[in-house]
Design brief:
alpha+beta, rod-shaped, 4 helices, three-stranded mixed beta sheet
């Protein structure tokens, strides 16, 4: 049965209405439709012939494989395209046999497979923060102190700076922690005095001023009067002074008679 089917399929004459060879001498030539067809029509005929040949070869191969395996081949009727569309049903109680399906040629372009929208799973844990620990050194000023001393050589209430004060320097070392570039902690780990301050010394005078009753032209108190004479002398006063007295200005009372700068000597 399979051999008869194979011979029947392979012995079908080609569907070509035109003669394969030119007519012999003396016969009226018949019209050749293939030559008169457009280029697109010729391409369609060639493609159809190739497709039909492929279908015939596939059907023939299926029949031969079925005959060799011993499986019964159902009776095929109709064209090869109709046979390809009819499914083979398995008998009750027997497993269904997989039959390769023959796809008919189609001019419709294949559609792209639909892709399911991809969903990005949320991260199970947030990105770990970047923590950095650095050492920072800063300097702080130490204010100098001040000390006051009394000086009897200075006029009372007068202030003189004997030693000028100088500020000191303290060096502070911190441990700074930053998280993602933002400072989150600052800890003092060391403090040291790198420059000692200098205490400022101020002298305050305690010397009392001279009495206004003494003449400023003499060193020593010479009273201010209409006339002053040396005590124990021949002068008649009314005021007297005991020497020696140093003349630092004008000898208005003529106390330095020998002119050596010392009066009442």
């Amino acid at each position: 049965m399979f051999a008869t089917t194979l011979i029947a399929v392979t012995m079908q004459p080609p569907q070509n209405p035109g003669p394969p060879y030119p007519p012999s001498f003396g016969q009226t030539p018949r019209p050749n439709w293939f030559r008169r067809a457009t280029p697109a029509g010729r391409v369609a005929v060639i493609l159809g012939s190739v497709t039909l040949s492929i279908l015939l070869l596939c059907c023939t191969g299926t029949a031969i494989v079925g005959a060799l395996t011993g499986e019964p081949e159902p009776t095929k009727t109709g064209t090869a395209a109709e046979q390809a569309q009819q499914p083979i049903l398995a008998a009750p109680g027997e497993p269904a046999q997989d039959t390769p399906a023959i796809a008919a040629p189609s001019t419709t372009p294949p559609s792209e497979p639909a892709t399911a929208p991809s969903s990005v799973a949320p991260s199970s844990a947030a990105a770990a923060p970047v923590v950095q620990v650095t050492t920072v050194t800063e300097q702080a000023t130490i204010r100098y102190g001040q000390r006051t001393v009394k000086d009897s050589s200075l006029a009372e209430g007068r202030r003189v700076v004997r030693t000028k004060g100088v500020n000191g320097v303290r060096t502070l070392t911190y441990e700074v922690t930053t998280t993602d570039g933002v400072r989150t902690a600052k800890k003092l780990v060391k403090s040291a005095v790198t420059k000692q301050p200098v205490t400022q010394v101020v002298a305050v005078g305690t010397k009392k001023p001279q009495s206004s009753k003494c003449d400023p032209n003499y060193s020593g108190c010479v009273p201010i009067a209409s006339d002053v004479d040396c005590a124990g002398g021949s002068g008649n006063g009314p005021a007297y002074v005991s020497g020696p007295i140093r003349v630092i200005g004008n000898d208005i009372y003529d106390l330095d008679r020998d002119g050596d700068g010392i009066a009442c000597d």
